[in-house]
């Protein structure tokens, strides 16, 4: 008898769309470590820059009647994942608008799926971390207890 069990897919969602961002380097590092240590999971990078989500979806996400083709594709993509690892910078003691927009476009697609939140910033992104954990609870995600916070200090000197 052969096993036809699908390998669970975890989306690593990059929460920043800024041109100058640390999110890409941190997400790539997380992906590398995850792929080396978690062989029974498949990890896929989801860069919000690649998604042209409108600022407003006219229908309520809880109704699951999406008008935008971009939102329909986003719904299918998120709905097909088994869990999420969200990487987010802290901006002015909060989280990026693009990440909030991506989260708010959907509702049921997030339900009962585990999430791991990794934040970063000058002080580790603790304020962003606390706020996003509340948002994830509102989306009925399964918050992991572990929630790494990476401190990035400001470089004041040029190395030349």
UniProtKB/TrEMBL annotation:
<protein>
    <submittedName>
        <fullName>Piso0_000613 protein</fullName>
    </submittedName>
</protein>
<dbReference type="GO" id="GO:0005829">
    <property type="term" value="C:cytosol"/>
</dbReference>
<dbReference type="InterPro" id="IPR005025">
    <property type="entry name" value="FMN_Rdtase-like_dom"/>
</dbReference>
<dbReference type="InterPro" id="IPR029039">
    <property type="entry name" value="Flavoprotein-like_sf"/>
</dbReference>
<dbReference type="GO" id="GO:0010181">
    <property type="term" value="F:FMN binding"/>
</dbReference>
<dbReference type="Pfam" id="PF03358">
    <property type="entry name" value="FMN_red"/>
</dbReference>
<dbReference type="GO" id="GO:0016491">
    <property type="term" value="F:oxidoreductase activity"/>
</dbReference>
<dbReference type="InterPro" id="IPR050712">
    <property type="entry name" value="NAD(P)H-dep_reductase"/>
</dbReference>
<feature type="domain" description="NADPH-dependent FMN reductase-like">
    <location>
        <begin position="10"/>
        <end position="146"/>
    </location>
</feature>
